[in-house]
Automatic annotation (TrEMBL):
Binding-site residues, S-adenosyl-L-methionine: R36, G59, G60, E80, H122
Enzyme class: transferase
Catalytic activity: 5-carboxymethoxyuridine(34) in tRNA + S-adenosyl-L-methionine = 5-methoxycarbonylmethoxyuridine(34) in tRNA + S-adenosyl-L-homocysteine
Protein name, per record: tRNA 5-carboxymethoxyuridine methyltransferase
Protein's organism: Halomonas chromatireducens
Any GO MF annotation of the entry: tRNA (5-carboxymethoxyuridine(34)-5-O)-methyltransferase activity
Amino acid sequence: MSLPVSPFSSDGDRHFDGLAEKFAGSLYGGPRGALRLALLDRLLPEMLRLDDQPVLDVGGGLGQLSGWFARRGHAVTLVEPAADMLDHARQALAGQPITFVEASLQALPQRAADPWPLIVCHAVLEWLHDPRAALAILAGHLAPGGQLSLMVFNRDALRMSNVVKGNLEKALDDRLEGTGKRQRLTPISPLTHDQIETWSAENGLTIEAVAGVRVFHDYLRHPPTTEADWTRLVALEQRYCRTEPHWRLGRYLLYTLVRTDTATCSRRS
Ligand SMILES: C[S@@+](CC[C@H](N)C(=O)[O-])C[C@H]1O[C@@H](n2cnc3c(N)ncnc32)[C@H](O)[C@@H]1O
């Protein structure tokens, strides 16, 4: 499939138009995607209060997370700006209680404005030109006491993996972010835990829980080749993903952010 003339939206974000096949194959078709889903399957029920509440999945991509919540009885609204990603999700999730909306996070006020008890936004902020503004928009759509399950690509882990791979000059120059221009899947805005802490506080969000997703896998010199070693690796990832210092170098950082302020709700929505 050919790429659009500019891969960036008018907001400067990297929508995944033309990337559905690549994303499905290179991430979810391989061990990294399988491990991510296995860890989320364990972590989401531990980190979130789940009581069949409606879920808004922002930048839902191919719909893996929407499907996970729908199978557990949640009514899900999946918002995704890339038409071909949304088509894949629609086909994969046919028959499940999911509403599909072709829109960007910035269009939420017009397209999915309700205050939501649970918003999921996984692996999206790092593809945005202004992730700080995006977190404010998400916070503004949370009901008081509502939970945001946020997962972001970890800049510190990106540095570590570049060093491990021998990309020393790149790491020393701190040239870590991708350009977003070709079909590469290196994010344009990898994020740090410090940024999430600061921006959460700015928006009345409290960090209730944090975990690293893939704290070991991406640094392995010898990826597992047997089923038994794969099982051992999954067990290690599960054991240390919420433990200091390991979570800090997870490829992704997974947060439960809770909206604790009520006074500024209407100003932001
Ligand atoms: C790495 S994928 C993650 C998909 C899914 N959340 C997951 O965890 O598998 C990033 C997604 O964010 C979407 N995206 C990019 N810019 C966006 C924006 N401004 N608003 C909402 N989604 C956006 C892309 O089109 C893409 O589907």
